[in-house]
Amino acid sequence: MNRPSVCIIGCGTYGSYLLRQLRQRHGDKLDITVIEVGNETTQSSEEAGIATVSDTSKVSRFGRYFGLGGTSARWGGQILFFDERDVVNDDPDWNYVVDLNNRHRDRVLGELLGQKKKLREKEDSRVKNGIWLGYFKRNLFKRLGKKDKEAVRWLKDTRVTGFTTANDGSVREVRIRTVAGEESVVQADRFYLTTGALESCRLLNKLDNGTLGQTDLGKNLGDHVSVELFQVKSSPPVLHGVDFTPQFIGTSLFTKRLLVHTENGRVNFAHVVPNKDVAAFTVLKKAMFGRQEGSTSFSEVVQSFKFLALFGTKLVFMRKLHVHQNDWSLQLDIEQGDVTDNEVLVSEETDKFGEPGIRVKWAVSANDRATIAEAKKQIKQVLDAEGHTYDELFTDIHEYEKLEDTYHPVGFIRMGQDQRAPVDRDFLVRGIPNLYHFSTAMFRSAKSINPTGAGFCLIEEHLDRAYPMTS
């Protein structure tokens, strides 16, 4: 008897998580093929030869990584979830997302951390907790065991170039091309598009099934707009009476963020950035994430030995992150809302595979600026109430400004029950009964979180519903 066949297109963050869960739950009962544009080496889009263009956003260059594990090999690994505080107005689709996050968040944390940990919201309803995966746990591909890897058919250094559909609209096969130019096809009973938000949008634009063209595919791109507001001097990072100093539990770092709701209905957040001007800390971040810009001289590192000693002492004995001289800054991240004028388009430029690339149209709107101004006033009141001494850093935002590690593209492959949503509530691409999609672009906005962890909850719900499958 033939086993049901599954094809995963893209083995980055979501593809790796999905593959591991399929192997854990169903083992050899499924015939699994994985198509990955890269290989074991993690590469940026430029290094991978993937064409991306934007005059206004760096997300297409600095927010994308290719290879097994994808962006999870470079991300900070912070896990947060949507909850009721992210839904200002009663909205069926947002309520659905929150329900799935509440249902599966503990399971996701268990899978990622290997033990039971909960993000308890104890201190204040205005404070949301997050957890960072340990340094050696963040690359999700590396969680696959040797036996699981050997049981999968791997097609590396291979790009999907098109789809062939049947009369009922289902995908019969995908066309592929290797970096050497060899072309072939892959057939399967079920396909998963997990190539990342931007690349998935590009591929869906190639799939003209008469239905996707009537959806909002590529429209309403959103991201967090990030600005540094205040530099606080010589006082602990306490807001609303809550200590925001990051703490370690095991190898995982627990952090807090302050929720900031504005009158236009947006849900934003502020968080503490410690040790921004300490050279040794900058070196540590560069070693961990490999993508921060700027340079640090050897003499600066030598001058930071005192910091390193205090950092190590607090880490070992107090399980807390050392905030040097109690100096820290506050960064604000605002959501851009469910509806924007931003877009993801197919460009005329081609990549090393001969495929058209991506053009990102992104900007900071007048409403974004108004949201920043209102949120700044609220946060200033919090600082004053705590008696903090601070310098104001922010006066205006450059139209194209983005801070490091803040790329959370959402909205342009949104999931919803209406017919203009490119993905339905069963996570199927609209009009295609055997093509599922998972990425952060399914969420209409990022709200108060880095949305990667929230997407794992959608995968868990799908696995509960859609299996076992028959060929």
UniProtKB/TrEMBL annotation:
Its cofactor is FAD. Keywords: FAD, Flavoprotein, Oxidoreductase. Residues 341-453 form the Glucose-methanol-choline oxidoreductase C-terminal domain. InterPro entries: FAD/NAD-bd_sf, GMC_OxRtase_C, P2Ox-like. GO terms for molecular function: oxidoreductase activity, acting on CH-OH group of donors. Pfam families: GMC_oxred_C (PF05199). Transmembrane segments: none annotated. The keyword Flavoprotein applies. It comes from the Bacteria. Belongs to the GMC oxidoreductase family. This is Glucose-methanol-choline oxidoreductase C-terminal domain-containing protein. It comes from Neolewinella aquimaris. The lineage of its organism: Bacteria, Pseudomonadati, Bacteroidota, Saprospiria, Saprospirales.
